[in-house]
Amino acid sequence: MKITASELVTLVGKQFGPSEWFRIDQQRIDVFADATLDHQFIHVDPARAAKTPFGTTVAHGYLMLSLLPHLTSQPDFSIEGELMTVNYGLNKVRFVNPVKVNSEVRAVRTIKAVEERQPGQWLITTEVTVEIKGASKPALVAETLGLIVVAAATR
């Protein structure tokens, strides 16, 4: 669906997704641990993690958060004249349920608010829920902020 920037407000309350399922394997967890220097055993030591209530290694909460751009990258709509969208931050994040190694996750998005910050710049507040295949509770729920910049001719 292609819309103009001024039509963004019509998306408030609409849900998009779910995305494709995405597997969280041990290699991804280990690479994230190396990148962030967070080598806590529940993430990287399968033998020790097996003795915890999780029964196996689990992904870092921040790994799951860092995957939001990928999990929400499937386009459900496009905006005429869009020059770029930048990450503007987060209002709230809750890590609800640990993601065990080899689990599959996907994202569902709901547009919560749209605000024109200045001509050609639109701030979109989106609630993103990352679901775990087979689990009743999601991995995380985050309220993300994206700033969409559109060309002057298409405002």
Overview of this protein structure:
This protein is of the alpha+beta class. Helix content is 19%, strand content 40%. It starts with a strand and ends in a 5-residue tail after the last strand. It has one domain: Thiol Ester Dehydrase, Chain A (Roll). It has five helices and eight strands; from the N terminus they run E-E-E-H-H-H-H-H-E-E-E-E-E. The longest helix is centred in the N-terminal third of the chain and has 11 residues, at 26-36. The model has no long low-confidence stretch (mean pLDDT 94).
Strand content: 35-45%
Superfamily (CATH H level) name: Hotdog Thioesterase
Structure class: alpha+beta
Tell me the helix content: 10-25%
- The CATH architecture assignment turns out to be Roll
Helix and strand run: EEEHHHHHEEEEE
Principal-axes shape call? elongated
Mean pLDDT: 94
Low-confidence stretches: none
Give the termini distance in whole angstroms.
17 Å
Question: In CATH's first tier, which class applies?
Answer: Alpha Beta
- Rg, alpha carbons: 18 Å
**Number of discrete helical segments:** 5
Q: Count up the domains.
A: 1
